[in-house]
Amino acid sequence: MRPLTAIPTRADIEATHEAIEPLIHRTPVLTCSAIDERAGASLFFKCENFQKVGAFKMRGASNAAVRLSEAERRKGLATHSSGNHAQAVALSAKMLGVPAYIVMPENAPAAKRAATEAYGAQITSCENTLAARESTLQKVVDRTGATFIHPYNDYNVIAGQATCAKELLEDVEGLDMLTAPVGGGGLMSGTVLSARYFAPGVKVYGAEPEAVDDAYRSLQSGQLQSNTTIDTIADGLRTNLGEKTFDILQRELDGIFLVSEAEILQAMRLIWERMKIIIEPSCAVPLAAILKHPEVFAGKRVGVILTGGNVDLDRLPF
């Protein structure tokens, strides 16, 4: 397979799913009657917290890696990330028997840094700014010749993330809606593409913290917007959309709902208490949106992507 250079087609997503199958888990779909009663809807949770590395990121990273040539792979995989994508690139490299070079900000969660190291990656620390991440990564790439795998603004990554919604649509019949959180937009872009190709009648909504609402503002204005703060507990959603993800979401997404920090915590706690599973704060954002907007979701069959379960247990929010 060659790297993708345009918006993934249905055939691209199908080929991707087949190619990465040995590198990922087909994660379960769980339900919870108590949460259904609270929401007034039938919710089907796609549990990517049970994915390898504990997050959906394994899908996109592994697809980007397998689409490289043997010569490119031998030089290694590189990225910058504070957590889940770092782990996904590191594990993909380990499974393919090639080096991984990861740039992580100094304040990256300790648990995610430790896991990335455990997969055998060489970690380089940097200041917690996008400029520092990018400049440090460029030095690493120049030194090693490794290929940069972008966390989200990459069609290969988007095609990998699309396999999550593809599985959900295969496993649960008759869904009315899909919803997922929006950070850089890789998962959300893949989700809308799978919905359009495999279940064109399904509506797709994103959910985003009020504190980092660049995707909402970008779609409202028609131009890419940036966040002026990253002050949200949903650490996986602090990034801005990329040009590729913005383009796809502009074309396909039915809407984005915003939720407060208190609403995120309430939804996160509800899943921990009622479903007895560990999710990270970013995962709770779509459920928070469903509970906030019963007029949209009531009575519907809704697929909800739970994106990951990598929580710093020394810094629990409740």
UniProtKB/TrEMBL annotation:
Keywords: Lyase, Pyridoxal phosphate. The keyword Lyase applies. Residues 20-308 form the Tryptophan synthase beta chain-like PALP domain. It comes from the Bacteria. InterPro entries: TrpB-like_PALP (IPR001926), TrpB-like_PALP_sf (IPR036052). SUPFAM superfamilies: Tryptophan synthase beta subunit-like PLP-dependent enzymes. GO terms for biological process: D-serine biosynthetic process. It comes from Phaeodactylibacter xiamenensis. The keyword Plastid does not apply. The lineage of its organism: Bacteria, Pseudomonadati, Bacteroidota, Saprospiria, Saprospirales. Belongs to the serine/threonine dehydratase family. This is Serine dehydratase. One of its GO terms (molecular function) is magnesium ion binding. Its cofactor is pyridoxal 5'-phosphate.
